[in-house]
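Hey,
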Amino acid sequence: MNYEMWQQSGETVRIGGLDVFRIRAGEGGVPVLCLHGFPTSSFDYHKVWAALAGQFPLVAFDMIGYGFSSKPIDFNYTTFRQADILENALAESGITRVHILAHDYGNTITQEFLARRDLGRLGFAIESICFMNGALFPETHRPILAQKLLISPVGRLFAKFLTDGRFKASLASVFGRSTQPSDQELDEILAIFKHNDGKRVAHLLIRYMTERATNRDRWVGALQKIGVPFRFINGLDDPVSGGHLVARFREVVPHETDIVEMEKIGHFPHLEAPGKVIETYLAFRRRAKA
């Protein structure tokens, strides 16, 4: 499925005066909420979508500023606002219980959901959680140069003059050396990133990197009290959140031992090794059910 087919398979829902792209598949039971990361979109799940939809209902949204959703320049791009929008989008979709499959920034969103749950303020129930690569602790996050520039005082200018080639090279740098994306894959991710003038808000989206530090106690504390079946799938060759993140996770959350380490896989396991991710996730759900 290419990105145009992905867009055509979804729809736009109006949440808080903003357009939120939603795509659903499968039927019966509690849906899997697929959360994407920065700077991509729900399209990241297209290689595992059909196989998972054959087993579970699925739902995914593009967060504000990403993918095919609205990309306003005057939106308050915080994790708290993104979580608000997603909560409202789930309510609009009639969803009250979810299994979460998250990647990258989607992990941080899930940490905020857990914090709200612990305070009795979450509008839906979480049945299980499966994380893929993504920074969980500010002390282990290793941003690439493009991310450092985006969050710097020159971030707006860097985003404005970011070339297509630089974007694709930066993205490819977090993939495994033997699982590099094709030119077509990079072109599709770039097209979605640029959709609706997305470059102009890129420096605003990445503010979550500083939020992880200022909200560390809230989000890491929530991670230490997951309380539902949990699995962590990690591509060890990811320079941003690979094997070094797994080591720190074992130190901070020692009681969560279900960790699947994928050698020679980088930051995007669901794009680099979709078959392994499908197999691993289905096994996780069978175990959780048992």
